[in-house]
Amino acid sequence: GGTDVFLAEYGPRGVSTDASTRVQFGSAADDAATAAIASDESAPSQFIYVAGWTDGRIDPSGADPIGRAAWIARYSDAGARSWIKMYDTIGSDRVVDLVYQTNTDGGLLFMLVESTTNNIRTPRVVRVALATGAFTESWVDNSGIDQSATGIAFDNRTNNGRDYDIYIQGRAASALPGAVSQNGIANGGAYVRKISSSGSSVWVTHWGS
After folding, report:
1. How far apart are CA 141 and CA 98, in angstroms?
2. What are the tens digits of pLDDT across the range 77-119?
3. Contact 112, 100 (CB under 8 A)
4. Cα dist. 204→119, 178, 200 in Å?
5. Which pTM was predicted?
6. Parallel, antiparallel, or unpaired: how do β-strands 182-183 and 201-207 relate?
7. Whole-angstrom Cα distance, residue 202 to residue 193?
8. C-beta separation of 109 from 73 below 8 A
9. 7-35 b/e with 16+ CB inside 10 Å = b?
10. What are the tens digits of pLDDT across the range 110-153?
């Protein structure tokens, strides 16, 4: 197709490893990778999760996307793909960032998705099942306020990683409801939001210059 995705392994000195660990893939349309993360769920081996957006059917077993769709794939550290899945809403979707955390259940993987509908960007936090790639939407902003999404972080609180908080950051075009701080946001500004493991927004702070 048009632009494709590639995944390559590099050593600690920045030197590319064996060519067998380099992969290139895509749909018949344009595709891009925007985030990647390695997990230790199968230590000492690793799985690598790579994600991005596609304008075509990047999942050979899936349907054509409604518009631009988000996707995520799992590869072994030898370059073998376990699965690839597409996340598609009625808008235009792209994966912004990934976060992985080990816990006693084998690990947690989340992707931060930015969905755009009628020029309004909406952040979504989506949990991804490690073995199958199945999606569970953990949290979505329903304020209707235009918000970009730029990063996600994980805070392992208690109970061996079963209780946790997620933090996301980005930029909002106007005041966010319930923000604990709204300094200097006349023209929009940066935000940080805390989301609990139950999928509730704990707080959001919003500031600008």
Report:
1. 18
2. 888 999 999 999 999 999 999 999 887 777 899 999 999 999 9
3. no
4. 22, 7, 11
5. 0.91
6. parallel
7. 8
8. no
9. bebeeeeeeeeeeebebebbbebebbbbb
10. 999 999 999 999 999 999 999 999 999 999 999 999 999 999 99
